[in-house]
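Any chance you'd type out a single protein's sequence alongside its tokenized fold?
>
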Amino acid sequence: MRISDRLVEINDHLTPAERRVAECVIADPSGVAFGTVSSLAARSGTSGPTVMRLATKLGLAGFVDLQAAVQEELSQQLRPAVERIGASPAGDPVARALEHEVENVRGTLSAVDRAVFTSAVRLLADRRRSVHVVTGEATSGVAALFVDGLDQLRGGAERLGGSEVAVARQLAFIAPGDVVVAIELRRYERWVVQAVQAAVEQGAELIAITDSPLSPVARPAGVVFTVMAEGPGPFDSHVGTLALTNALVAAVAERVRARAAERLARVEDAVRDHLDG
């Protein structure tokens, strides 16, 4: 089991200080792999003994064991895709993909808290609130589909991106009460985390779609969804994430059905002349 998964398991048994250390371990594993007890304590605003207590709660002998476990995980995540392909199990690739992707969808959607889902839909359907989606490179395709669906239904949805200057400019126009949706999985991009924090400081409502409740984009969020992303091959899967965003868009469509019908009709009229058949 990954260190991040083990941290999630024991999350309820951690003190606030230990939880800050856990968040640093998940957000910056390389800092643990190549750092020291004191550097991890400084980054988390805690102390050396707190770091050691967290390692003990993980069932490890101390920081050295924690560091070794994180280093091993990083070596698996960062090795070239060609090596990961070589390590992929033999057998029917279609059957293997079916098994993984069905489990990703099942695990992601079955874990959804209905009250949390309803809260997210209420925010996303509120046309008085602009929706801003921020995402790293790996999940940009899912985010593009999500934004497109929301914008066709209700308007006022955009994806933040471009250079750091462009993102900063876009963030400047986020108003209190606007909705920011962060879609980001492990190996969290620093600019995404920083953009999320800036948006929350400006009063935005944050919905996080991520792979762990302890991820750095989940920490400041009022609404958190966790997805399963285990791929059948060398790369993470985004099928579970896509299934969740599709469910959100479908629920928003039901909520704004009357208003969306006219809007969708106008969209269809606008694109009809550009389609064959």
User: Anything to note?
Assistant: Residues 86 and 234 are 9 Å apart (CA to CA). Confidence is low (pLDDT under 50) at residues 78-82.
